[in-house]
Write a structure and sequence with these properties.
transmembrane helix, cell membrane, TSUP, TM_pro_TauE-like, transmembrane
């Protein structure tokens, strides 16, 4: 049963990440926590997300907004150590509860057409939140997704810029996790076993991306955010 669940998690999450640019950590991390210890689930997520970003970036680099990408990277630098301190010293259940309520509130605002103006300062702030969430719970996606949705970013630019940012944030977060939390053979063996599923998910996700229009993409985004917030809320309660 655990093997079937692991297969479904990795395959669906890989396809989602490939087609949208943000789905792997949002979908995989909560369910991987059912099968692994928190540090193991987070590091498996980081490794596989890094593989997906590396595999896709050469195909989509022309769509990356490098100005926004640079600000995300700079913003994430102070957020990364904050996140690992949260993981080590703060009650993760409390953190999940707070994050779930914020995501739920902002998603409802987006559904009702709330929009924000993109700025350099907000780019840096979003990067900081994303960095902190990556090293604390392995989920950098919600701040980026909420921000890009609120600024009505085109799906091609959203996916490309997010995947390029993940290439940096996942690599640095994995190094920080290994140094401060440690690692084990279960993490690396499970990640290696998941690689064929990731490859299949890449193929499926590329097919889905071509079939999804901007309107459907936005609806899909809201559903993922609602799922994430409700799951974190239930899990923390």
């Amino acid at each position: 049963m655990e093997i079937i669940l692991f297969t479904c998690i990795i395959l669906i999450a890989s396809a989602l990440q490939t087609s949208t640019g943000f789905g792997f950590s949002i979908l995989a991390t909560p369910f991987l926590l059912l099968l692994f210890e928190p540090a193991e689930a987070i590091q498996i997520n980081l490794i596989l997300s890094l593989v997906i970003s590396c595999a896709l970036l050469s195909k989509i680099k022309k769509e990356v907004d490098f100005g926004v990408l640079r600000r995300f990277v700079f913003g994430s630098i102070p957020g990364l150590p904050v996140g690992i301190l949260i993981f080590l010293f703060i009650n993760i259940t409390t953190l999940k509860l707070g994050i779930s309520l914020v995501i739920l509130a902002l998603t409802i605002m987006l559904v009702f057409k709330f929009r924000i103006q993109q700025s350099k300062g907000r780019d840096l702030l979003v990067g900081a939140f994303s960095g902190a969430l990556t090293t604390s719970i392995g989920m950098p996606g919600p701040p980026l997704l909420l921000y890009f949705s609120g600024t009505d970013t085109q799906k091609e630019r959203l996916r490309a810029t997010t995947l390029a940012f993940y290439l940096f944030i996942y690599l640095v977060s994995l190094v920080i996790q290994v140094i401060f939390v440690g690692t084990n053979t279960t993490i690396w063996i499970s990640s290696a076993q998941a690689l064929p599923l990731v490859l299949l998910g890449l193929i499926l996700g590329q097919f889905l991306f071509k079939k999804i229009n901007q309107h459907l993409f936005r609806i899909f985004t809201y559903l993922i955010l609602l799922f994430t917030s409700v799951y974190l809320l239930i899990d923390s309660l």
